[in-house]
Amino acid sequence: xxxxxxxxxxxxxxxxxxxxxxxxxxxxxxxxPDLVIQIDGQELPGHITGLDGSALTFVDHFGYQxxxxxxxxxxxxxxxxxxxxxxxxxxxxxxxxxPSA
Length: 101
Description:
By secondary structure, this protein is mostly beta strands. The protein has a single domain (about 10-90), classed as Beta Barrel (Lipocalin), CATH 2.40.128. About 0% of the residues lie in helices and about 50% in strands. It has no helices and 10 strands. The chain has strands at about 15-20, 25-30, 35-40, 40-45, 45-50, 55-60, 65-70, 75-80, 85-90, 90. The relative contact order is 0.22. Mean pLDDT is about 90; it is low at about 95-100.
């Protein structure tokens, strides 16, 4: 009997920040526990086409791939096929309400 395949999905869950070097705009990439992908709070229409220990591949409704690369510590970069660019990403913490004084 074969062992079940490992579930790598939780390795990608979180909120990540990356800088678009063309526009100099910071973006937030969020991957939910059910692998819904959002950029700047907007859900991307499309579907997951690949998932393993090193990458999550998402194809958007235009047919372009978005590939999130990871290591043992979590996601490290995102490749956007539509712009043919690879962006380093870092963990981000969504802005919440300001602490009360």
